[in-house]
Amino acid sequence: MPLDLILNNLEKHIHLTREEQEIFTAYLQPKKVKRKQFLLTYGEVCKYSAFVTSGCLRGYTVDKSGIEHVLSFAPADWWIADMYSLISQKPGIQNIEALEDTDVLLLSKANQEKLYTQIPKFEHFFRILTENSLVASQQRLIDSLSLTAEERYNNFCKRYPTLIDHLPQKQIASYIGVTPEFFSRMKSVIVRKK
Question: CB–CB of 152/143 below 8 Å?
Fold first, then answer.
C-alpha cells in the first residue's frame, strides 16, 4: 500500500499518532507519471516534494552542449524535488522524468508549511531530509573531484543497489560523470577483475 510505504518512511525519523497520520495523508496527492513523462521541467517552479511509491524518477540538467547530467535517482521509498526551486520558489534548474511508469505521492510546499504548524515534528523530518540531501550533494561533488570513475561507480552501487541492473548504462554513466563508451569499457574491466 502506498500510504503504508510513506508512513514507514516517516517512522524512520518521527513517530506519528493515528490522528497525525490522518492529517498528513489528507495533504497527499497521488499522481501517476508515465515512462518518459516529466514531473518537473527546467524553468518551472517546483511546488511539490514527491515520494515515489513505485517505479523510478531521475533528476537531471542539460548543459549548453545538450549533454544530460544526472543528479539523482528516486526509486520506490525515496523523496525527490528540485530543492533549489522548492525552497526559493524560483524557476527550477532540473528536469524530473519518469524512467518507467511511476506512482508518486505529492506534498505541496503550501501543505508542508501547514504541517509545520499543525504537527511541529514535521519540521524535524523535513530538516533531516534537507540535511541528508545537502550531505549527499556535497559528497558527490567531493567524489567527482577526488575519486576515480570506478570508485564513483562503486559508490553509485552502494547508494542505489536496487537500480544497478534496471537502469540503462548511459544513465549510470551520466550520474558518475563519464561517457557511455568509457563506462562500457570500465565495466568490462571490473567484470574481468572478478
Answer: yes
Amino acid 88: pLDDT: 95
Reduce the secondary structure of the chain to three states and give it as a string.
CHHHHHHHHHHCCCCCCHHHHHHHHHCCEEEEECCCCEEECCCCECCEEEEEEECEEEEEEECCCCCEEEEEEEECCCEECCHHHHHHCCECCCEEEECCCEEEEEEEHHHHHHHHHHCCHHHHHHHHHHHHHHHHHHHHHHHHHHCCHHHHHHHHHHHCCCCCCCCCHHHHHHHHCCCHHHHHHHHHHHHHHC
Segment 50-69, tens digit of pLDDT: 999 999 999 999 999 999 99
Q: What's the rounded Cα separation, in Å, for the pair 155 and 101?
A: 26
pLDDT tens digits for 87-97? Answer: 999 999 999 99
CATH number of 2-117: 2.60.120.10
Beta bridge mates, 70: 60
Residue 159 in grid coordinates:
547508494
State mean pLDDT over 104-125.
96
pLDDT for residue 100: 95
